[in-house]
Amino acid sequence: MDAGASQIGRRFHLTYTIQGVRKLLVRNGWSCQVPARRAIERDDDAVAGWVKEVWPCAEDSRRPMEPGSSSRTRPDSP
Fold first, then answer.
1. N or C end of the chain, less CB within 10 A?
2. Which of 7, 9, 35, 5 is nearest to 17 (CA)?
3. Are the CB atoms for 42 and 52 separated by under 8 Å?
4. Is 71 within 8 Å of 65 (Cβ atoms)?
5. Helix (H) or strand (E) holding 22
6. Residue 69 near residue 75, CB atoms below 8 Å
7. Alpha-carbon distance 42 to 78, whole Å?
8. At what angle do helices 3-12 and 18-27 cross, to 10 degrees?
9. What gap in Å lies between CA 8 and CA 16, rounded to an integer?
């Protein structure tokens, strides 16, 4: 299964084929880009450690979604 399709499945509990993911991306103005080659300097062990240790902390520190005004100049009033 494609990485994008598996990400969509985990996040939204939906299943898509690779072609379905491509159609979603194109419909929203994105393109399927795959690197032609992997960087020689890439350290897979360091990447795996970062994903395991740092990413969960970064993901948890995102601002929670709160209802409010879409205007930057006029915030939501009570």
1. C
2. 5
3. no
4. no
5. helix 18-27
6. yes
7. 50
8. 80
9. 8
Neighbours of 2 (CB within 10 A): 15
Which structure tokens are listed for 67?
């209802």
CA contacts within 13 A on the Cβ side of 15: 1
Q: What's 29's DSSP letter? A: T
- Whether the per-residue pLDDT at 77 is higher than 60: the answer is no
How many other CB atoms sit within 10 Å of the CB of residue 37? 5
CA distance 34 to 45: 21
DSSP letter assigned to residue 28: T
Does the pTM surpass 0.85? The reply is no
